[in-house]
Amino acid sequence: MTFKKLISILSLSFASFSAFSFQIPASMLSAQSEFAISPARASLAHPETGPLRSRILDQYQKWKGTHYQWGGTTHRGVDCSALMQHLFSDAAHLSLPRTTAEQIQRGVQVAQYRLKAGDLVFFQTGPHRRHVGVYIGDSQFIHASSSQGVTVSALTDDYWQAHFITARRVAGSAA
Fold first, then answer.
1. Is 50 exceeded by the pLDDT of residue 46?
2. Residue 41 and residue 111: Cα distance in Å, rounded?
3. What percent of the chain has pLDDT over 70?
4. Is 67 annotated as catalytic?
5. Are the beta carbons of 131 and 122 closer than 8 angstroms?
6. For residue 135, what is the enclosing H or E element?
7. What's the per-residue H, E or C state across 142-153?
8. Burial of 117 (0-12, 13-18, 19+ CB in 10 A)
């Protein structure tokens, strides 16, 4: 059979096949099947729903609403960089430096359109003042806001877009 004839037969087969619906056999859906996807594999395929994001969100629940205090490091008051230290220490067993000036030097730079859950996002909020948060996916990030305390904000908000300076990936993709 010639190559062209084989291609023609396959094309006709696929064209007629698409008109029919079919069901996947139950044996292919079982947990032992090579086609089954483990939760670990699924989290690697979809990093926005991966384990690091879940652990960061769990830690956020413990800090949510804590009021902002410049230089603060506890649940009585915390600043943005101390919050990142706590979140990454507890969620990823990763030690971050204390200040935004030091944290912005960690990891590798990431373009805004390539952000993944767990990336640090940095903003210039004053002439000599920087702010940091952690991206959690869906254009949102967790941070210690001076007006709202520990909260989630939209990276797409005009204020944050105007003040965005960089993002850094400090945790590995398998974290």
1. no
2. 25
3. 70
4. no
5. yes
6. strand 129-137
7. EEEECCCEEEEE
8. buried
DSSP codes joined into one string, 2-24: -HHHHHHHHHHHHHHHTTS----
Of residues 67, 86, 93, 131, which has the active-site annotation?
131
Active site residue 131: yes
Provide, rounded to the nearest whole percent, the portion of the chain with pLDDT above 90. 69
* From 67, 75, 80, 93, the catalytic residue: 80
Which two tokens mark 159? 């204020």
The answer to whether the beta carbons of residues 103 and 120 sit under 8 Å apart is yes
The token pair at 106 is: 């960690």
Compute the distance between CA of residue 29 and CA of residue 43 in angstroms, rounded to an integer.
18
In this structure, what token pair is assigned to residue 130?
């920087």
Q: How many CB atoms lie within 10 A of CB 83?
A: 25
Average pLDDT over every residue of 19-33: 40
Whether the pTM exceeds 0.90: the reply is: no
Q: Which two tokens stand for residue 78?
A: 């915390």
Active-site residue (options: 67, 86, 93, 143)? 143
Sign of CA dihedral 106, 111, 117, 121: positive
d(CA 138, CA 34): 31
Could you read off the pLDDT of 145-154 as tens digits, one per residue?
999 999 999 9
Q: Which residues contact 77 (CB under 8 A, 6 or more apart)?
A: 66, 67, 68, 69
